[in-house]
Amino acid sequence: MRRTARVLTGTALAVGAVGLVVAPAYADHGGGSGGGGLKLHPSSVVPGGQVTVSTAACRDGGAAGDASAVGAGSFTLAPGSDDEDGGGRFRVPPSAQPGTYEIVATCADGGRRVAGDLVVTLTSAPGQVHPRGSVKTGVGGAFGRDPVQTAAGVTALAVAAAGGTWLLHRRARGDGI
Q1: From edge to edge, which strands make up the β-sheet containing 86-91?
Q2: What is the pTM of this model?
Q3: Is the pLDDT confidence value at 35 over 70?
Q4: What distance in Å separates the CA atoms of residue 55 and residue 76, rounded to the nearest whole number?
Q5: pLDDT number for residue 156
Q6: SS in 3 state form for the chain?
Q7: For position 81, what pLDDT does the model report?
Q8: pLDDT at residue 169 in the model
Q9: How many Å apart are CA 40 and CA 51, to the nearest integer?
């Protein structure tokens, strides 16, 4: 038992050490101190909506944008001035499914890759959406649309309850069944 615990502890420590040594490679999402990530406005959009994209990372030469993850294809980001970020826009296709999509731009001057996340939702109202309607389980509800069937079901339950009570009463009196 002790030997198994030592082996498992050693394995866990080795895996943890490897996890600390390996650094992930990822695109700049704008969270760093450089502020060069891809800014999407709005960051949450419904299918068919238009998205404006800007970045400070590609001010000098513009960029080639890629929104194919959401199905919008490529777009161009114009170079920005000293005061403004470079920008462009694209339209989310009406067939886009809800989810989070990575939008990427590659700067023309140096090939720097910046990215941002776009959230596609079915409703444009902010806040939580609650489901409506009934669940189609194939079993049916307690009260159907037919009052005759409902009355027959209630009657059958009443007869079964009365019969069970009568049998329990006879048994308690000792009459037997």
Answers
A1: 39-41, 50-55, 86-91
A2: 0.51
A3: no
A4: 12
A5: 92
A6: CHHHHHHHHHHHHHHHHHHHHCCCCCCECCCCCCCCCCEEECCEECCCCEEEEEECCCCCCCEEEECCCCCCCEEEEECCCCCCCEEEEEECCCCCCCEEEEEEEEECCCCCEEEEEEEECCCCCCCCCCCCCCCCCCCCCCCCCCHHHHHHHHHHHHHHHHHHHHHHHHHHHCCCC
A7: 67
A8: 85
A9: 7
